[in-house]
């Protein structure tokens, strides 16, 4: 995985509260970093995440999240989190993520969401308008 694999990045600085006593980012925080970056990706597309319910009549639920650790991030590092849509199925969508410190690739991951009816939480087909917005 390389920076060139991504067209969107969200930058954040590692805060002290996110590190362990050695100043290394505690592993669970990478999922939060992914969530923040995906939220900013939606915002960059013109749809702040909560607006998906109103605009498309569906909600998105995480059904799978994976994190692969290649190298640690440290306190005060500036990290660039790359986000792209890997694939869209009938009711699911895969976000592929990479965390970089300059050119160094630290973390890989994926988050898979299922589109569902907001009240019943039953899976729904990803609407064509959403597919187009996401470039699929």
In words, what does this structure look like?
Residues 22-106 form the Thioesterase domain. This is Thioesterase superfamily protein. It comes from Meiothermus ruber (strain ATCC 35948 / DSM 1279 / VKM B-1258 / 21). Keywords: Hydrolase. One of its GO terms (molecular function) is fatty acyl-CoA hydrolase activity. There is one protein chain. With 136 residues, this protein is an alpha+beta fold. The chain has one domain (3-133): Roll (Thiol Ester Dehydrase, Chain A), CATH 3.10.129. It is 21% helix and 38% strand. The protein contains three helices and five strands, in the order βααββββα. It has helices at 29-44, 51-56, 128-133; strands at residues 8-13, 59-69, 78-88, 92-101, 104-116. The protein has a five-stranded antiparallel sheet. A hairpin with a 3-residue loop joins β3 (78-88) and β4 (92-101). The two termini are 21 Å apart.
Set out the fold topology:
Blueprint: E1 8-13, H1 29-44, H2 51-56, E2 59-69, E3 78-88, E4 92-101, E5 104-116, H3 128-133
Antiparallel strand pairs: 1-3, 2-5, 3-4, 4-5
Domain Thioesterase: 22-106
InterPro entries: 4-hydroxybenzoyl-CoA_TE, HotDog_dom_sf, Thioestr_dom, YbgC/YbaW
Organism: Meiothermus ruber (strain ATCC 35948 / DSM 1279 / VKM B-1258 / 21) (Thermus ruber)
């Amino acid at each position: 995985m390389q920076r060139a694999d991504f067209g969107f990045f969200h930058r954040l600085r590692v805060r002290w509260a996110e590190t362990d006593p050695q100043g290394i980012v505690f592993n669970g925080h990478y999922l939060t970093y992914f969530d923040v970056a995906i939220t900013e990706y939606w915002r960059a597309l013109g749809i702040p995440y909560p607006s998906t319910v109103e605009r498309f009549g569906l909600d998105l639920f995480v059904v799978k999240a994976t994190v692969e650790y290649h190298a640690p991030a440290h306190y005060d590092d500036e990290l660039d989190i790359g986000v792209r849509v890997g694939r869209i199925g009938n009711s699911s969508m895969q976000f592929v993520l990479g965390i970089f410190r300059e050119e160094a690739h630290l973390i890989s991951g994926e988050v898979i969401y299922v589109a569902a009816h907001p009240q019943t939480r039953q899976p729904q087909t990803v609407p064509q308008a959403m597919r187009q917005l996401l470039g699929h």
